[in-house]
Structures are given as structure tokens and as C-alpha cells.
Amino acid sequence: RSSYDVTDLLDICPMDDFQTQFYKKRVEYQSEYVSAFFTKENVNQRAGSVMIGDLSDPQYFDFISYVQYAVINDQINLNRKVFEEAQGVFGDEGDFENKLIVRDPKLGDRDTIIKLHGERVGDMVLDHLVQEKGLAVSVKERPGIDVLCDNFKKILDMLVENGFCASYTIDTSVKTSKPDPMRTPSQQPYDIRGDRCISVTFERPINLWSQQALVSQNYSLKNNFEAKVLQAFLRRCGVNSRYQTRYASLSIGYDFFLDGYVAPSTASVIPL
Question: What is the reported pTM?
Fold first, then answer.
């Protein structure tokens, strides 16, 4: 729900058109997705199950999350800054009107939209975990890396508890990241120096297929809620970060590079 709400708040597209495109894409891919859970040898033998419409079913969540983010990406790529949106109650006896929507000029850049969408979704997910699920994290200005890891673990434990993934591993290291292709040499981020890094690997997350499906179609905005919520926590602690993603057959890993958390002088830098 947070991704839908942020799409609306950022005036990315007419939300009535979003719903239309969402329905079309869901219908387009649903049969193919569900059929993948039958064995090739016997079309009547299930290799798994998909409970259509049940967001508590990991297989369905994986699918519908892909559909949602594919549509969000498509709408971002259209880059509509001025549009009409039908607002009101829809249906056979619907009461709605068309309103002219003009996006804030500060949000006109596509890269800005993608960045803000990820940040706001992360903030909303973190707020939900704190306010609705009882997550107790310690937010302090630039705490030590051990404190950051301890709070990461609290967030990760809650994600496991709520069925987002089966398990996780976390460790700290000293790495240099790959240069940011969107920046000039003089603008390259801090993490190419070899600052401290927190590495997290999620085993069997419920967005394992969908996230890689989005990558395969060259979509820029991912449904990586696990990374968004961890970065949201880092921002509240005043820590700038950038991450790189690692995909495996049953896991997704992230290396979070922390601005200003300089590696100990005795440590060696591990090149990627």
C-alpha cells in the first residue's frame, strides 16, 4: 500500500490510469505466473501453490508486487508532469470529476522521482514497523557501527518474524564499491575510498522472483523494501549510505556503504 500511496503523493501519474494499467498487466501475466507452479511432466501435479488475491501468500505477494512496480516504472518513464485525473467514487453510479494535476517542478527530474519514491516508501515501512508492530530501534546521530548493526538486527528480526524472509546473515567489512556511473570522477561517492560496509543477506525473501524480474526488464525502481527500510533507519541516524545488490538463487544480499565510517587503519581494503 505504501508504494501506491507514494506514487499518488508524488503526482507520478493519474491514479485512475494507474489502476487501469495495473489491471491489464496483472491479467497479462497472471496465467503464465501461476502455470509455473505446475510440473512440466504433469500439468495436473502442483509444484507449489498461488493463492490469488491473498497478500499473505508469499507466492502471490511476489507476483503482485512485480506487477505494481512494473506499472510504477512505466508511469515514471512516461514523465507526465501535467495531467487530468479522475477523482471520486467509481462504478456504475460513480460520482467523480476530472481534476488538473500539475506536479511540483522540483519533482520534474526522473532520477529525483525514483530517489524520493524509494525514500518515502522506506520511511513509511519503518514507521509501520515502529508504530504498528512495536519495533524498538535506537535513533542517535551517527552512532558507532556496532550500534547500527544491533539496530539492523532488530529490524531484520521483525522482517523474519512477519514472514518477509526465512532468515538473514549480517556482518561488517571494509570494501570499495564500484564507481557511480551517473557521476563524474570528481563527484564520485565516498564509498570508493573503502569505508566501512554492513553486508546483509536475506534468505528466501518474498520478493526474490519479482525483484530479479524487474531487473531483467531494466526497470530502475525496485520493490526492494528490505533495503528501503534499512536505508530509512540510516537516514534517521544522519548516516548517508549507498548500497549494491547481490542476487543468488535463493537469496538477495546488500552491501551498505556508510559515509564517513572510516575503516580501521589495521584493516585491508577488499577490492570488488
Answer: 0.85
Tens digits of residue pLDDT in 115-155: 999 999 999 999 999 999 999 999 999 999 999 999 999 99
Distance CA(215)–CA(129), nearest Å, equals: 27
Burial class of 230 by CB neighbour count within 10 A (0 to 12, 13 to 18, 19+)? buried
CB 239 within 8 A of CB 259: yes
Measure the CA–CA gap between 232 and 251, rounded to whole angstroms.
Answer: 22
Q: What is the mean pLDDT of the chain?
A: 86
User: At residue 56, what is the residue type?
Assistant: S
Q: What is the DSSP string of 181-238?
A: TTS-GGG--GGGG--EEEEEEEES-TTHHHHHHHHHTT-SS---HHHHHHHHHHHHTT
2 and 131 in contact (C-beta within 8 Å)? no
Q: What angle do CA 55, 243, 233 make, to 5 degrees?
A: 65
For 53-108, write each residue's pLDDT tens digit: 888 889 899 999 999 999 999 999 999 999 999 887 655 556 778 999 999 998 87
What residues contact 258, with CB distance under 8 A and at least 6 apart? 145, 148, 191, 195, 196, 197, 198, 234, 239, 240, 241
Contact 96, 87 (CB under 8 A): yes
3-state secondary structure of 247: strand
Task: Take residue 60 and report the three cell numbers written for it.
Answer: 502471490
Would you give the distance in Å from CA 205 to the centre of its chain? Answer: 12
